[in-house]
């Protein structure tokens, strides 16, 4: 009996030792196999790491301080480098890998990746699309995927300028599987996702940069905080860079909230973005244009055409701008300061921002603001995106406007001053891409146009008297105290913006009302 127990004990020890040796051997073979895979990566991809910890029993793999370097297959220059604190793969299913040649993971974690990428603008966008839509050689399923505290820097490969940067980037994806719909552009599908990052910078173009303090996105809602778009030069510095006129921009938005969003990516179809509502909260915009620079004579489309020809499908139920401030400055004379127009307490609601052909609702814009510090201004604007003639209706009513408040724009730019007051003004513009008609009526009092001498200070009595011969001093001789315009047609200058079109109509209507007989035919 003792001999049998001794045999059993010896057998147990032998089996245990053999299992232990087998485990270490298998781990060594797995490590060697992994080393072989690393050594046999494509020539343009290199992976280095300090240590690889492979746990065969649990199916875990941890790489310490891995560094991935990717070079251009033609240039052999470094295109990207990714340095990690660690890379973790947990609970790999050997059975699925062996039987179905499929990768099945409980989780994958990229810890503190530091990504440096050199963008080559000469690489066609179609190449990136092909990579995105390409078929994966293995099927896979990952229950959880994490990117923790990543840092990204993207440089222009030509001049080493920073195109994009972001810090503290975190991503969490669940239920990632290669079993994708045949209609999807992506080679995989995702369940829930969460994305956040801080201190984002993106070069919009050669002149303007985008900054975002923080971004938080999930599968339904998004929030962007402290959003800024800024011209990288000063106003005077920008003018030195330009051959044709361009706006200097300084835009800040306290927060942007996107509610109930959805992105659709399907093969053979345009990408689509839709959301129930987008709120722009506490917007502050300064725009400056140097008119001493040559005009940009390119065709300026109206908003309806811009939406219609957008490179992707867009469907937004409602867009709101809450508590905005807008300042527009325009410099016309080299020896005079820029003229200024101001809008405060700016609130806007835009409904049905869509280029969906099946959507028959018009896009409507309602604006409430204070113009030039104390004049209420309300606007109702609508257009049909599907109308190739770009027909629109623009209605505005303007409260008490002291003419002198316009002088900070009129005096430096047009060398004239206004006196008196527009007590109440209404106008409606019915227009298309080519022409428009304006109906305007105004109640005003003691209105004078003062033409200035070349010095911009003294009154040119002769020209001022001549101009005021044609302008009724007030509207009191009318039975309802309003004088009306009799404007026939206003032609659009297609090299100017939509706001120039609106201004041209308002100017034409106002002159018609004041210089005509104050009645419509």
Strand content: over 45%
Low-pLDDT ranges: 15-30
Helix- and strand-based class?
A: alpha+beta
What gyration radius follows from the Cα positions, in whole Å?
33 Å
What is the count of DSSP helices, taking H or I runs of 4+ residues? 8
General form: elongated
How is the main sheet built? 26 strands, mixed
Task: Describe the model.
- The chain has 521 residues and is α+β, with helices and mostly antiparallel strands.
- The protein has 8 helices and 26 strands.
- The chain has helices at 2-39, 94-100, 125-133, 235-241, 303-308, 407-414, 461-469, 498-515, and strands spanning 45-48, 51-55, 60-64, 67-71, 78-83, 86-90, 103-111, 114-119, 140-156, 162-177, 193-203, 208-218, 222-231, 248-259, 262-264, 272-290, 313-331, 339-354, 363-371, 375-383, 392-398, 401-402, 416-431, 435-451, 483-484, 490-491.
- It has a 26-stranded mixed beta sheet that branches.
- The radius of gyration is 33 Å and the shape is elongated.
- The termini are far apart.
């Amino acid at each position: 009996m003792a001999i049998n127990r001794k045999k059993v004990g010896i057998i147990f020890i032998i089996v245990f030792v053999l299992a232990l040796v087998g485990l270490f051997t298998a781990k060594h073979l797995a490590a060697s196999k992994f080393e072989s895979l690393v050594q046999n990566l494509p020539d343009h991809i290199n992976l280095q790491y300090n240590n690889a910890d492979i746990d065969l029993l649990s199916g875990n793999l941890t790489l310490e301080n891995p560094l991935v370097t990717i070079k251009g297959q033609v240039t052999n220059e470094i295109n990207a480098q990714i340095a990690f604190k660690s890379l973790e793969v947990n609970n790999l299913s050997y059975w699925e890998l062996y039987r179905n040649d499929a990768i099945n993971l409980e989780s994958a974690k990229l810890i503190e990746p530091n990504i440096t990428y050199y963008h080559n603008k000469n690489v066609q966008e179609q190449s990136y699309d092909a990579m995105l839509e390409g078929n994966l050689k293995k099927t896979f399923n990952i229950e959880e995927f994490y990117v923790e505290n990543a840092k990204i820097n993207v440089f222009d490969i030509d001049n080493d300028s920073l195109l994009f940067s972001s810090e503290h980037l975190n991503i969490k994806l669940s239920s990632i599987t290669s079993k994708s719909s045949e209609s999807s552009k992506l080679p995989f599908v995702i369940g829930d996702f969460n994305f956040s990052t801080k201190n984002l910078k993106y070069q919009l173009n050669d002149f303007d940069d985008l900054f975002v303090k923080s971004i938080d996105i999930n599968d339904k809602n998004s929030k962007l905080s402290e959003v800024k778009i800024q011209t990288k030069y000063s106003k005077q510095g920008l003018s030195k860079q330009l051959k044709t006129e361009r706006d200097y921009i300084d835009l800040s938005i306290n927060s942007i909230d996107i509610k109930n969003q959805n992105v659709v990516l399907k093969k053979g179809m345009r990408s689509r973005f839709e959301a129930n509502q987008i709120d722009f909260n506490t917007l502050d915009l300064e725009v400056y244009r140097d008119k001493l620079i040559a005009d940009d004579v390119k065709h300026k489309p109206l908003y309806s055409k811009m939406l219609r020809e957008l490179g992707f499908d867009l469907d937004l139920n409602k867009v709101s701008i809450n508590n905005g401030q807008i300042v527009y400055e325009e410099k016309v004379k080299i020896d005079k300061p820029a003229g200024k127009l101001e809008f405060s307490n700016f609130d806007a609601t835009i409904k049905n921002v869509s280029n969906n052909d099946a959507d028959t609702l018009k896009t409507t814009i309602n604006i409430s603001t204070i113009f030039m510090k104390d004049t209420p201004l309300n606007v109702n604007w609508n257009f049909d995106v599907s109308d190739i003639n770009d027909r629109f209706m623009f209605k505005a009513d303007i409260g008490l406007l002291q003419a002198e408040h316009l002088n900070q724009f009129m005096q430096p730019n047009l060398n004239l001053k206004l006196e008196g007051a527009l007590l109440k003004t209404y106008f409606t513009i019915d227009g298309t891409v080519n022409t428009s008609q304006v109906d305007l009526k105004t109640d005003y009092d003691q209105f004078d146009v003062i033409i200035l001498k070349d010095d911009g200070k003294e009154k040119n009595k002769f020209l001022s008297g001549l101009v005021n011969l044609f302008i009724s001093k007030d509207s009191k001789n009318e039975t309802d105290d309003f004088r009306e315009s009799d404007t026939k047609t206003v032609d659009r200058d297609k090299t100017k913006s939509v706001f120039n079109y609106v201004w041209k109509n308002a100017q034409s209507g106002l002159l018609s009302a004041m210089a005509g007989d104050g009645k419509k035919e």
